[in-house]
Design brief:
There is one protein chain. The chain is mainly beta. The protein has a single domain, classed as Cytolysin/lectin (Mutm (Fpg) Protein, Chain: A, domain 2, Sandwich), CATH 2.60.270. The chain is about 10% helix and about 40% strand. It is built from two helices and 15 strands. Strands 1, 2, 3, 5, 6, 8, 9, 13, 14 and 15 form a ten-stranded mixed β-sheet that branches. A five-stranded antiparallel β-sheet has the order 7-4-10-11-12, with helices on one face. The longest helix is centred in the last third of the chain and has 12 residues. The protein is globular.
Length: about 250
């Protein structure tokens, strides 16, 4: 496994309740739509204040509706460098508590402001800028353990910046159990993450994919169809992770 690092800029994770979390969930499942009554926007716009870039690349925005945190445990990049990564930050001291981790869902702290039983979960963002000249690729693996260890199942997220113009040219796919996924018929890579990216390439998965494990763990990914307000070459892949008991985002 390639150890995650802290190259680039940290982006503090957000804790989000419905109905806003629902919009992100829908963006990951409904052809990338993130529509508001006043205007359409891109989920990456929520993090615009944190180290924006005009460089071309791919951003990955993740909504975690599980009760356990998502922790990055493996990364594979080909032609990308890490521009920024999520971090849990103390709002009072601005000190970093944990990097590469997106908190799980928990009860909303003010029941008077939300319906009984409402929850709020973590939303985090990665950004990767192009260093190659044609077809850049990458993949991430996240655990869902309380201590951040790399025990199965691992969530796999793959993305690509294709050389063909247009949003739909960027392959992206997700799997709910990376190490136990059936990759039959897919060109093998040196690692499971490289094989996952080959799944996108071989089957020309260009906009979205969902996967569900036998245990009910589900993950969905879709490219947002509206560009971030100030980042015209940063294409955003929105991912939603939940299970059969999740309520946040639905």
């Amino acid at each position: 496994m390639a150890a995650p690092d802290t190259t680039g800029n940290r982006i503090p994770v957000a804790l989000m309740a419905d109905p806003f979390a629902h919009l992100i969930g829908q963006c990951a499942t409904a052809n990338g739509n993130f529509g508001m009554q006043d205007n359409s926007m891109n989920p990456l716009d929520m993090f615009e204040i944190w180290a924006p870039t005009t460089d071309a690349g791919i951003a990955v925005v993740l909504l975690n509706s599980l009760t356990k945190p998502l922790t990055l445990v493996d990364v594979w990049l080909d032609g990308f460098t890490q521009h920024s990564y999520p971090a849990i930050v103390n709002p009072n001291t601005t000190l970093t508590i944990k990097t590469h981790q997106i908190p799980g869902a928990r009860p909303y702290p003010r029941p008077s402001k939300h319906p009984k039983g409402a929850t709020m979960g973590g939303v985090g963002a990665y950004r990767f800028t192009k260093t190659g000249g044609g077809h850049e690729r990458g993949a991430l693996a996240f655990s869902m353990t309380e201590d951040g260890s790399s025990a199965d199942p691992l969530i796999g997220v793959a993305f690509s910046y294709a050389s063909i113009a247009g949003f739909s040219s960027h392959p992206g796919c997700v799997v709910a159990d990376l190490n136990n996924h059936d990759f039959s018929g897919v060109s093998p890579g040196k690692t499971n993450l490289e094989t996952l990216n080959n799944l996108c390439e071989d089957r020309h998965i260009v906009t979205s994919l969902w996967d569900i494990s036998p245990t009910g763990l589900a993950v969905t990914g879709s490219y947002a169809n509206v560009q971030p307000a100030k980042e015209t070459d940063m294409h955003v892949y929105v991912v939603w992770v939940r299970d059969k008991d999740s309520t946040l985002g639905k």
